[in-house]
Amino acid sequence: MHLHTSERHVTVDTRSVMRSAIRCLLPALAIVCGTTGAVAQGRTPRVPEVTAAAAAPNTLTAAEKAAGWKLLFDGKTTNGWRGFKREGMPDQGWTVEDGAIKHLAGKEGVAGGGDIITVGDYGSFDLSLDWKITAGGNSGLKYLISEDLVKTGHSGVSFEMQILDDERHPDAKAGKGGNRTAGSLYDLVAPSAHTAHPAGEWNTARLVIQGRHVEHWLNGQRVVQFELGSPELKALIAESKYKAIAGFGENTRGHILLQDHGDEAWFRNIKIRELPVPAATK
């Protein structure tokens, strides 16, 4: 801008700059307003985009705190977690390393530590976490866990968002139509898209349950959605590996579980916010 520019021209340019600034802010405002507004109206919240202002691992931004998010992992300890059918954490198989809960690779002939679950239980909620898996590895994020469904042992059974190295693990080619690949509702519903990053890279999973509606998100894309207790889901269960398990799929509240499948797996940024139950499902 030249010093001899007229006052009129300066006014026009200033307004133009202001309009440009507002246009730049609109996407960020839409993310915040769109997400919180959806919850208030009882709709499934939209997954916000990752921005440069995202919190450091295992922390919450002021906006997340205001929206009701709470950390399920502090980045340093396993406080808030315990072994499945145990009073505390397993003595082996799990550790905290470099800001992540890590499952250690099992050794031949040595029993692993078993699955771990949240101390608290949850019904309608929005859960987000980062995971990565070793080459050829297998793990899982299970939810609506009841310890009563399993009579013995330290492995929980319930709905599972699959965690897998699709490229190398044979389970990716088992099941039906890809219903055992990363992001799937394991052995029941295949993901609509394969969005998992290669083994050794971090992925962001999102699990949204509101009333009876469930969604799996992986790396910013919704890949599975279904309705708890629906005839369609019951038909899928009747044809799955779970068909002989009495009570499978009937829980509407339970623990969140990280699976011991014998392979190295890492979990961080585990956070949750509870959601209102839609009036139609109460």
What average pLDDT do the residues reach? 85
Helix and strand pattern: HHEEEEEEEEEEEHEE
Number of helices: 3
Multimerization state: single chain
Terminus-to-terminus distance: 62 Å
Weakly predicted, low-confidence segments: 1-43, 47-53
Helix content: 10-25%
Total beta strands: 13
- Overall morphology: globular
Largest sheet: 8 strands, antiparallel
Estimated radius of gyration: 22 Å
Strand content: 25-35%
Structural class: alpha+beta
How does this structure look, described?
Helix content is 17%, strand content 26%. The chain has 282 residues and is of the alpha+beta class. Strands 1, 3, 4, 6, 9, 10, 11 and 13 form an eight-stranded antiparallel sheet that branches. Strands 2-5-12-7-8 form a five-stranded antiparallel sheet, with no helix packed on it. The radius of gyration is 22 Å and the shape is globular.
